[in-house]
Structure prediction request, 606 residues.
Amino acid sequence: MAIPGSFAAVEVCGIKKTFQVKQKTAGLRSSFSSLVTPTVRSVEAVRGVDFSLPTGEILAFIGPNGAGKSTMIKILTGILHPSVGTATVLGITPWKDRKKLAYQIGTVFGQKPQLHYHLPAGDTFKLFSKMYELDADQYKNRRGFLVEALELQDFLKTPVRKLSLGQRMKCEIAASLLHDPKIIFLDEPTIGLDVVAKQQIRTAIQTLHEELNTTIFLTSHDAGDIESLCRRAIIINHGSVIFDDKIEVLRKKFLQHKVLTARFSSPLESVFAMAGVAVADQTSYALTVEFDTNVVASELVVKNIFDFATCSDITISDPSLEETIHEIYTEKGNEL
Amino acid sequence: MKNLSWLTKVCNELSFLKTLAGVNLAAALAYRTSFIVQVVGMLLNNIVYLCFWILFFDRFDTVAGYEANDMFLLFSIVAASYGLSTVFAGNTSGKLAYLVAQGRLDYYLVLPRTLISHIIFSRMQLNGLGDLLFGAALYLTVASNMAELATFILVVMLSALFWSAAMVMLGCLAFFFGNAQQVATQGEGSMIISATYPIGIFSGTTKVLLFTVIPAAFVGFVPTQVVADSDWLLLLGLAAAVAFAWLFTVATFSLGLRRYESGSAINTNM
Prediction:
């Protein structure tokens, strides 16, 4: 039996994936000419990725749209074959032994629900118990635990189409954990959720990780997901890994930059000024400022804005992933 | 994963497929009116087609050697077997081609079941229930004895297996051609039309096509001959054709799956 922490749940070595993509310029003439002489271009979605994920760890695998995250997840779950390279998940090569691996992993794709849309989640749970060949006692115990841990009692008998996105995602996570997987792949589990639902999902994932020591491979665009759940992050861009380190390093170096937007109920009479804070935009009723939390605390900026004028709404956001990636490239450029 | 015997694995697969059929039926019954309209609509559609043949045989005694009872037997076998196939294995032909072309096999690929059976049994075509009921009822009007009824049930099951193999094969075209939904649907239509006419009306080359490229003979002519003549050798031939069709289909599906490229479409599991 593997000792937690001593065994790599995922090992990836030199994985590359190239797709053949048909090219066509706009217009009917081009459509006809591509019938006779189709133009095909090779697109490298993943360009030699290497990493290892120890058992019991929560890894954030992040990157902008088209970076290669989903392709990597699809390779690790046996959906796609890589063009080059090797990978093992729990000691199994995913694309060679898909079925054997599927018994031991769970997947939640935020945009590809597993639950039957017209039926209550309980019906899908029952189907999944047969799918994973759980005996009646195993199923009953496991379902009971998940219903309690994820607080599903109130909507378990409601058709999925009538559930809120947050409730649905909780049921998706429960369905993917019914068979007690050793590793779970979460692809954008909080996509489209409101702040409250996001927090509920994060708490649920955290609770399940603490109780079951399940290895979690998480992709997300939401810096909040990453900061509250993960200890390590890998950032991928254009198919290559550009950052692989602890979350503290990412936070300290790149996630300290905040953007604050405030709206006011009366017109502003002067220009906002504060040491360590840059005004990005100011109009009669709105103000956007940027600051580094290493230099000035968020609370202090908020207090100064409340003192500056009568504030009706205020939002603090993280820099976008694109900005963070830009910063990482800048940092790397400076190091070279 | 548990080490299971071959028999246990088969039992587990059947138990899973039974639960899957139950879930599909429950999902279908969630919309009662739609369910009734689809089933009754297909029954009426078949009745109109039957009326045409009743009028025809009112004026003529035979067509290509088929009398009215032979024609009704042929139609009952084609309708019942096609209905049995599509009511349980509904994700075939154009629907399978759509799933492949849209990259929607991901859902099935991350789950630990036999891929083809999981995909095709994941959807019920409710109008198939209308075909199945119609075929069974029509057969009862021409049935002669219990032994023949047993043969009818057997050939309907074998023909349904052949229908499924042929329609999965049509869906597999999407692995090689990309968007093959229309081609697959047209192929299915060609098989239905070709199967519901007496084979005697077709000439040499067309007859060869009906045993090969559009293998409608294995769901129409052959099973009808088995029931009408109690031809056990032909029954064995039909069983062999079903086995060959499935071997060919599974091999094509496996080959096609290597070309599968997934996709980023947003899915809903209906």
